[in-house]
Amino acid sequence: MSSDHHQSQYTGRVLWLTGLSGAGKSTLAGALYQELVSAGVRAELLDGDGVRENLSKGLGFSKADRDTNVRRIGYVAGLLARHGVTVLVSAISPYAQTRREVLSQLPSAYEIFVDAPLETVTERDVKGLYLKALAGEIAHFTGVSDPYEAPTAPDLHLRTDQLSVAECLERLRPLAGLREEVGV
Ligand SMILES: Nc1ncnc2c1ncn2[C@@H]1O[C@H](COP(=O)(O)OS(=O)(=O)O)[C@@H](OP(=O)(O)O)[C@H]1O
Ligand SMILES: Nc1ncnc2c1ncn2[C@@H]1O[C@H](COP(=O)(O)OP(=O)(O)O)[C@@H](O)[C@H]1O
């Protein structure tokens, strides 16, 4: 969101990865987190699954619950960023208006669209959930029976069906404040 690349040394960046289940958010955020830690950068990873087990335990997948989840993540990301931590968020965060609202309140946030077509994520079916969702066994499953509002002007658009993990990381590094050759 922010175009300010010369931010205060005290304010951490927030890289917000949004996209369908199985698009590659956790894979990319996890790998980038490792690179940041190796480079000595103070970083935190707010991953959909971990957040839902702890910060958002008990929330479901209605629009209201997803929005609450996304707002909570944004709140924690803001607290961390205020203390100079680079924050990687990995959450479907399907609603454009809520993403906009949350990201606009963060001092230096980047919206990253982790994008693969439904066909690809269904083939990957990392957790076996698409099979169940397509069989009608999971109600309100994002992309199948629940909306995903794709970013219209993301700071970075990664087609994970066309790019390798390594190619995606190359594009992510500058946004995370890492030199492009780190980790290559
Ligand atoms: N109905 C429904 N729709 C989408 N996803 C579902 C659903 N039920 C469970 N799951 C699992 O929950 C993970 C998504 O949680 P998030 O917190 O990222 O979602 S959201 O941002 O609040 O919309 C998501 O994990 P990821 O695959 O990591 O995205 C799924 O494993
Ligand atoms: N360019 C890529 N970026 C990220 N993941 C990729 C890419 N290409 C293939 N994959 C694979 O896609 C899957 C993505 O799963 P995951 O990271 O759990 O998605 P999400 O967190 O969005 O639900 C992994 O099995 C990963 O190895």
UniProtKB/TrEMBL annotation:
Keywords: ATP-binding, Kinase, Nucleotide-binding, Phosphoprotein, Transferase. GO terms for cellular component: cytoplasm. The keyword Magnesium does not apply. One of its GO terms (biological process) is hydrogen sulfide biosynthetic process. ATP binds at G19, L20, S21, G22, A23, G24, K25, S26. InterPro entries: APS, APS_kinase_dom, P-loop_NTPase, Sulf_AdTrans/APS_kinase. Pfam families: APS_kinase. It catalyses: adenosine 5'-phosphosulfate + ATP = 3'-phosphoadenylyl sulfate + ADP + H(+). Pathway: Sulfur metabolism; hydrogen sulfide biosynthesis; sulfite from sulfate: step 2/3. Belongs to the APS kinase family. Catalyzes the synthesis of activated sulfate. This is Adenylyl-sulfate kinase. It comes from Deinococcus psychrotolerans. The gene is cysC.
